[in-house]
Amino acid sequence: MRITFIGAGRVATHLAKVLHQQHTIVQVFSRHLEHAENLASQVNAQAIDQVTQLDSQTDLVIVAVSDQVIVEIMNSMTSFVPQSLIVHTSGSTSLIAFEQESQRSGVFYPLQTFSLDRDIEWVETPIFVEASTQADLVLLTELANSLSHRVYQYSSKQRQTLHLAAVFACNFSNYCYDMAQQIVDAEQVDFSLLYPLITETASKAVVNQPKLMQTGPAMRGDQNIINMHQQLLAQSERTDFAQIYALMSEGIFKRHHLDNKS
């Protein structure tokens, strides 16, 4: 298959490199030519920074850009690749956003967190596909199956729900790790001392219901410890941390005490 990438960021880089093993990456487009050149050099593709340069013979165009510019990019490029299947990699953008512009549109969404300095275990990464036609849905499913054994044909609404859950499970939890590091760094305490705790917490969450694995002062309703922690945060002048602590403690307490009484 001949594939063109729109975007040269983290998602595009990981996808282009893995798909390059089985397919031809024709072009990489980025508004910053140096970004396109960097990725294109890794997958033996042409780097371009103008949509007018798009190869009309591309079989598949993968739009891997931030959500807020997906539709804008789509509007600018469809006339140059009129026969191509055009898909985006977003978890939160509806297929409808593309269907209005292209007769052949779809979604190819890998549910994963991407960093340029870390490899992706593709075979275990869930991939969600959606398409405006049955034939293209089959094509995307086959492409996804070549990368992962966890491939799902989900609707836009289901995918948006997953993306929302992923923000809690990944982005918010990572910020909690960041807050934890800031707290210990302030007192010259080694953050790596928390590594076993972080690892064990994540491990328990994937083999049990997270609710059943909840521990800590808020779950126990230990107001003395909660008050002490709030005082420590107040002394550190991190009022934002104190607000987050109070909100999360309240949510945990409600989940394990008040909700169970209803």
From TrEMBL:
InterPro entries: 6-PGluconate_DH-like_C_sf, DUF2520, NAD(P)-bd_dom_sf, P5C_Rdtase_cat_N, TM1727-like_C_sf. Residues 125-250 form the DUF2520 domain. It comes from the Bacteria. The keyword Zinc-finger does not apply. One of its GO terms (molecular function) is oxidoreductase activity. It holds the Pfam family F420_oxidored. Residues 2-86 form the Pyrroline-5-carboxylate reductase catalytic N-terminal domain. The keyword Amino-acid biosynthesis does not apply. Keywords: Oxidoreductase. PANTHER family: CONSERVED HYPOTHETICAL ALANINE AND LEUCINE RICH PROTEIN. This is DUF2520 domain-containing protein. It comes from Acinetobacter suaedae. The lineage of its organism: Bacteria, Pseudomonadati, Pseudomonadota, Gammaproteobacteria, Moraxellales.
